[in-house]
Amino acid sequence: MAKPQHHFEALEERLAPIASGFGLELDSVIGVKESGMQIVRVIVEAIEPGASVDSEALADMSRAVSPIMDEVDPVDGEYFLEVSTPGAERELVTPRHWGRQIGRLVAVKLKDATKLVGRVESATDFHAVLNVDGTPTTIEYTQVKKARPRVEFGSEE
């Protein structure tokens, strides 16, 4: 069983500057249990929106994280450490996640069951503006049930 979440907050504070030193931004540290195994996921992404993170940067980050995990000891018992990127279709949860999607297509399901697909035109701390079929549509984050980027293939030309 995982220790309370505040231990992950302390871990995030320690890991953020380390990630920055590798040209990465710490997205989150989460604990999950899969197939009976406790996993601590350290999720990082490139500081520059649209840039990719190579396997060497992930390996460097993993090596730097291990001693801090031993020191902070964020979970009881054994765990598996996973350092990864959020993936192309990660859920958009924070204003920063939305801001990184400017110019990209997203699918949104609102709490009232409305479903929208549009391109993010702008994002603030409280809402995003999507271009939905040519119409600017403001989406308040408090009304979002689930939102994910849409993977686009090919060109629009």
UniProtKB/TrEMBL annotation:
Biological process GO terms, please?
Answer: ribosomal small subunit assembly; translation
Q: Which residues form the Ribosome maturation factor RimP N-terminal domain?
A: 15-89
| Keyword Cytoplasm found | yes
Would you tell me the protein name for this molecule?
A: Ribosome maturation factor RimP
By sequence similarity, the record places it as follows:
Belongs to the RimP family.
Q: Which UniProt keywords apply?
A: Cytoplasm, Ribosome biogenesis
Subcellular location per the Swiss-Prot or TrEMBL entry: Cytoplasm
The terms describing its cellular component in GO are: cytosol
Q: Where do the Ribosome maturation factor RimP C-terminal domain residues begin and end?
A: 92-153
Q: What is its main location?
A: cytoplasm
Is Cytoplasm found in the keyword set? yes
The entry's function note states: Required for maturation of 30S ribosomal subunits.
Q: Which InterPro entries match?
A: Ribosome_maturation_RimP, RimP_C, RimP_C_sf, RimP_N, RimP_N_sf
Q: What Pfam families does its record include?
A: DUF150_C, RimP_N
PANTHER family assigned to the protein according to its UniProt record, in alphabetical order: RIBOSOME MATURATION FACTOR RIMP (PTHR33867)
